[in-house]
């Protein structure tokens, strides 16, 4: 891959915790039980709390509730309180249409699709039919925001195809020639790999592609086959959680010292760091999205620590979830309420320069009718590393994508 291609695409640089308890938003009357329709705004939340995406969806879901509580405590949106109705598709694309229809039937006026990208893709056509604006806070599959059926569906973060371009830049910088890929077999990762593998093939010889079930208990055979190919670098393509812990523990044991790339998952799942073999993450570089030079990031971290304690570790999932709620609030206020979903959609399409709680200082989010991926450039991408104690060390010194804010 030529450096000019990388510069063109990257001239502007994009978990399992326990839900602590029900928030005020969840203590509102059950969906469908009535209430005063004129006095509330209903947010539908498709939250994968039990499936393969739970390792990040639970984190995002908790912060969505926190943001809603914060807005309600300040008087709501134009004097109307927000009520959340919740469904769970378990990141299973076959279940998403049913869950989305259920949320709409329960009165949802806007939607938050806090689930796997593969599931969001399956839900797009239903969202379009319902004519209700939907934001996918943690989605990283670019096609979520692209046609077809994207008229009402939005995402915030940079896409994984852009992650792959960043890793290609690192591969060229390091002089690597070969890469192996170890993936979980979830639908979300299957969709992600369809985007990133062709890009990686442009800059390195993909010498092995191994997969295993999300709930695999042993990856020894897969890693042994990778080892036989002697790759220069390995990509762990996973939703995170137990699979990624097992992957890094096994790779650390069988291929110590070999650099490993990871999607954002491991960097945003603090519980996983504790369950990984000491030192096993020291050879991992993941795609981060947080930079403490961003005052919005610092502000959000302070709020979350006040609620969850000083030991709380801010993640990109928190930031993207928080921003999603406030983007919807901005559009609803501009539309004069949530009763006309198309008007809310039209106001989302007018949002420009919204200060993001993730990415580099000054990083913003904008939408237009033709642009439903919010990131203004690629300054949300930060290649990040770990130390010998499996603690994040911040930006990787060996390579960073060029970053020019729009």
Automatic annotation (TrEMBL):
InterPro entries: BCAA_transport, Leu-bd, Peripla_BP_I. Keywords: Signal. Residues 1-24 form the signal peptide. It holds the Pfam family Peripla_BP_6. The keyword Nuclease does not apply. PROSITE patterns: PROKAR_LIPOPROTEIN. It comes from the Bacteria. Residues 41-364 form the Leucine-binding protein domain. Residues 26-46 are annotated as: Disordered. Transmembrane segments: none annotated. Belongs to the leucine-binding protein family. This is ABC transporter substrate-binding protein. It comes from Microbacterium bandirmense.
């Amino acid at each position: 891959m030529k450096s000019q291609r990388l510069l063109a695409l990257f001239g502007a640089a994009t978990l399992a915790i326990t839900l602590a308890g029900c928030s005020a938003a969840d203590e509102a009357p059950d969906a469908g039980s009535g209430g005063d329709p004129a006095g509330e705004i209903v947010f539908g939340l498709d939250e994968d709390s039990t499936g393969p995406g739970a390792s990040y969806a639970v984190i995002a879901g908790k912060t969505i509730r926190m943001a809603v509580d914060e807005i309600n405590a300040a008087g709501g949106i134009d004097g109307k309180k927000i009520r959340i109705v919740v469904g769970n598709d378990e990141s299973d694309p076959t279940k998403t249409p049913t869950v989305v229809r259920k949320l709409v039937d329960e009165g949802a006026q806007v939607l938050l699709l806090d689930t796997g990208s593969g599931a969001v893709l399956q839900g797009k056509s239903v969202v379009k039919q319902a004519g209700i604006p939907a934001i996918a806070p943690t989605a990283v599959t670019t096609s979520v925001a692209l046609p077809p059926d994207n008229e009402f569906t939005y995402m915030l973060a940079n896409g994984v195809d852009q992650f792959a371009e960043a890793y290609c830049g690192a591969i060229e910088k390091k002089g690597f020639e070969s890469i192996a890929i170890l993936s979980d077999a979830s639908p979300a990762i299957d969709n992600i790999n369809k985007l990133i593998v062709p890009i990686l093939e442009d800059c390195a010889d993909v010498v092995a592609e191994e997969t295993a079930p999300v709930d695999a208990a042993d990856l020894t055979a897969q890693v042994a086959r990778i080892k036989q190919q002697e790759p220069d670098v390995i990509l762990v393509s996973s939703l995170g959680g137990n699979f990624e812990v097992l992957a890094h523990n096994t790779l650390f044991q069988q291929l110590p010292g070999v650099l490993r790339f990871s999607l954002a998952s491991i960097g945003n799942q603090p519980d996983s760091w504790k369950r990984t073999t000491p030192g096993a993450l020291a050879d991992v570089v993941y795609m981060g999205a947080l930079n403490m030079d961003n005052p919005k990031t610092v502000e959000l971290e302070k709020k979350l620590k006040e609620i969850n304690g000083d030991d709380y570790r801010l993640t990109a999932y928190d930031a993207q979830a928080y921003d999603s709620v406030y983007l919807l609030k901005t559009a609803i206020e501009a539309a004069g309420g949530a009763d006309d979903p198309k008007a809310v959609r039209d106001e989302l399409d007018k949002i420009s320069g919204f200060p993001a709680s993730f990415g580099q200082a000054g990083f913003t989010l904008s939408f237009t009718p033709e642009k439903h991926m919010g990131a203004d450039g690629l300054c949300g991408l930060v290649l990040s590393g770990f130390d010998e104690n499996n603690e994040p060390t911040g930006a990787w010194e060996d390579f960073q994508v060029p970053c020019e804010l729009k």
